[in-house]
Amino acid sequence: MSTDTHISKIARCAVAALGAVTTLAYLLVFLAGVSTRAAPLEGTGTDPRIHLITMTADLPHYDPTDNDGVAKTVYFSNSVSGVITMTFDISGTHTLTLTAGAAFDELEQVYTSTTQTWVQPITYSVVDTHTTQPNIIYTAARADGITTTVAITYVRDVTAPTSSIAYPSAGQCISGAQLAITGTANDGVSGSGVQHTQVSTDTAAPWRAADGGAAWAYTWTLPSADGVVYTLSSRAQDNLGAWQQVPPTVSITVDNVSPSGAVILTPSLPVYQWTNENTLDAQWSGFTDGGGIAGYQYLISDTIAALPLPGAAFTTTPGVTEALADGEWYFRVAARDAAGNWSTTHYTGLFQVDTLSPTNVAITAPKHISATQFTVSWSADDAVSYTVEYSGTDYASWQLWLTGVISTEAEFPVPATESDYILRVTAYDHAGNSAQAQTETHVGAWRIYLPLILSNYDPFANGGFESGWAPWEHAGELAQSRTQSQAREGQWSALLGDPDYVNRGGVPVGSGRMWQSFTVPDGGAPEITLWYHIYTHDVVWGQNTEKYYDSFEIYINSVDWSEAGDPDPDDPWRETRCRDELSTPDTSNPGLVFCDGKPSDPTKSDPPTDLEWKSVTLDLSQFAGQNITLYLATFNRVDGWYNTWTYVDDLSVQE
């Protein structure tokens, strides 16, 4: 926060601009009072007529009426003795007389003329003791008694005028290109009046004429200065030529040079590096200015822009401590001197602050499995790396498995001992904040049974297709591929069919299929779960044609692809199974265990129908301890019209 001292300095510097406006107002008033000189004024009488009264003297004198032949007040200075002569220019019917009243210790005098026009001087000897001579009467008269009279007051003025500087005030700091110096001048109640005022901008500078009289102004073109003190003076002269004896002075500081210097900014937080510390201690040094630094404006924002800016904070100390919100920030600072000049803006950053730990941390694994490895998946929001650990009944502490990985899935290699496992993931963000999640499920280790050893035990593997195709095999008339476009978990899934086939007449007739042989665990209630996602333009069963068209189907062990490609239209199970999901398979058809597709509908769809991701779990209890082959296939039957394709992902065997 700024102190009262700095606020007052700012106010004074602001007044500098207002002073220029005030000066212009004074000048306009002064100029408005100037008018063109009219013809000389004369006495009220016309015969006789006093045309002019001219004042001359060998001492300082002043006639404000400019010799007009009227009643008037004139001024003289008798600091030394001298002579004042008043010359009257008179016309009229002669004989004429001029009677001058008593003044300056001289008696009344009468002068006579026999001419129609008459110039008569009247002389007074004035010594330094004479004072003001008020209302001296002068009468011009004809012989018949007609007169014209004027009165003249002689005012003694031996006092010099005074002046004062109104703006700027003493101690003020000034910046800019020009300064309007303003003030007033006065010659007192009985003075002859101020003739003009002069201004000096330093003790060694010459006097310069100001504009105006009682209110005067002078515009000073400021020198280039950095905190230099100048002494301003003014002096007035009256109409008798007397100068002010003791000019007033005002000392100001001229500073129109901005603060500069080799500025060093020292922040407490790292730059261009994420941190979970949010307290910024910023210090700076190196700002210099001839008039001194009044304070600093600083701003914390997510962009770089020049200061000063409205609303930015101000401090008088070269350092601040601020709490930063999460985000990316720059720190900017600029110095201001007492005259209001601003330095260039200096900045530091980028400060990258993150005080929040990752959220929605999760880790998943099968509940039960008998295999040499199984898939573990994890995820979190605002995480850039993960560490995965495991523990279990055979371990007294957590064991490190994966450190600093960016992947979100891996195959966990089960040690060759029978045990239950607990897995835990720690998620880390850019700033090192961390959060943990632990599986609530216990995973049994794979168990080897002698009957399975004797029957060539082969566990199910690569249910997420993350490790290529193996041990899966694949073939068919429709395309078979691994793809990253529709993975449900991880990065890969299998695709049976092709969405790019020409929908009307360009789809191969047949199937795209894949299969894997494995050993079903001998224990518990073995089952297999898988996820699939069907897109189709067609239907499973044509009600009008009574033909089978497109479907996704699962077989175990027995499959006749020629029969599968052209099923018996009298087979009620297949049509019912694919139309009404989750019907119990007919044990008379042991090969086909699952079928799905678009329910029978006389309307084809374009664009394709999206049946979304679904899961199916198949009971393998009847195959416990046996080696089986699992087949998955997408069929396009009858003709090359209306395409169908299926994505398959996340197959896992549990017991």
Mass-distribution shape: rod-shaped
Total count of strands:
46
CATH topology of the largest domain: Jelly Rolls
- Fraction of residues in helices? under 10%
Gyration radius, rounded = 56 Å
- CATH class (first level) name of the largest domain: Mainly Beta
The CATH homologous superfamily of the largest domain is termed Galactose-binding domain-like
How many separate domains make up the residues? 5
N-end to C-end Cα span: 71 Å
Number of helices: 4
Which regions have little confidence, pLDDT < 50, spanning 5+ residues? 1-39, 445-455, 579-588
Structural class: mainly beta
Mind describing the biggest β-sheet? Answer: 6 strands, mixed
Mean pLDDT: 84
What does this structure look like?
A hairpin with an 8-residue loop joins strand 27 and strand 28. This protein has a six-stranded mixed beta sheet, with no helix packed on it. The radius of gyration is 56 Å and the shape is rod-shaped. Helices cover 7% and strands 46% of the residues. The chain has five domains: 4-32 and 159-255, Immunoglobulin-like (Sandwich), CATH 2.60.40.650; 49-156, Immunoglobulin-like, CATH 2.60.40; 264-351, Immunoglobulins (Immunoglobulin-like); 359-445, Sandwich (Immunoglobulin-like); 473-654, Galactose-binding domain-like (Jelly Rolls, Sandwich). The longest helix is centred in the N-terminal third of the chain and has 29 residues, at 4-32. With 655 residues, it is mostly beta strands. The chain is built from four helices and 46 strands. The two termini are 71 Å apart. Mean pLDDT is 84; it is low at 1-39, 445-455 and 579-588.
